[in-house]
Hints:
Structural class: alpha+beta
Strand order of the largest sheet: 1-4-6-5
Largest sheet: 4 strands, mixed
Mean pLDDT: 85
Number of helices: 12
Number of strands: 11
Shape: elongated
Bound molecules: iron/sulfur cluster
Amino acid sequence: MSIDIRLPPPESASGQAVIKEFSDPSPMTPVQPVQLGPDDTFQFSCHKGIACFNKCCQNIDIMLAPYDVLRLKKRLGISSRDFIDNFTRDFQMDGHGMPGLKLATKDESPACVFLRPEGCGVYADRPSACRYYALGLLSMRKKDSPTDEDSYFVVKEDHCLGHQEPKTQTVRDYRKEQGLEDYDAINREWRQIVLKKRSSGPTIGKPSERSMELFYLASYNLDGFRDFISTAGFAELFELDPAEKETLLANDEALLRFAFRFLKQALFGEITIPVRADAAAKRHERYRQRVEQMEREGAERKSMDQDAQYESLKHEGQDDE
Ligand code: SF4
Ligand code: SF4
């Protein structure tokens, strides 16, 4: 199973401006060329007794989206940081170094780290890419349109016998059965941020290291992001209603949606979190004080060095006598 988000250029070959998002297989995967809408049908069924059971999880390349990370770390009862460290690997989503996460494989094979002889060890919380398989998602948004249009395609890999099963269903029913509506509702907003960030790359240049760190924190390390919004520095800069803050600290889904708002504000200047009017002046004052202190410390160090040099010259002079 090889599923990824592909990031095409912001302009199509025909010059029509579009933003696309893909959840599709690698170029080696036989993707069926027919695009399906929500009410189109396709033939496929996956179930425990099937002869190919688990084959799709034995050689994986699966990209994770923020809601995937949240569901899995909650299931395992560990922090986002521990989940990232133990069950994912980093990769770059594009040439600008936009950070992405992929699901880890076992030490000794390309099989998914959660694969068990009896099947998926995290089935109820498996990532959206696993839920979609054997469908792929293609989302397209015209440049000035506020909404995406989704279409789907079937992925037929030789080892997957599910396509020979006699079950036919609509895409809509399949998505519902796989629990994809919840996942897409949250992850879609994030994919739009990824695409917008990438498509703005050539116009505004390489993203700063700081913006990439914020992207990583808000996208994947939700517990770290919770700590971040609890800091004095955050409160000094942003005016967050105390009741809203309490909700965010207690509700992971609400916090993740807020993290996306924060990212849009930090990356694209879309202001939805009120900024304190005096924040810039305070930051400037703090910066000025820090520079002054560094200059003071530098002057003290220089004076101590000069004293030490003088003492050593004095001793050398005494030794010569
Ligand atoms: S998370 Fe589960 S379904 Fe997805 S690749 Fe791993 S074992 Fe398979
Ligand atoms: S039918 Fe396809 S998706 Fe299901 S277990 Fe077999 S290879 Fe995996």
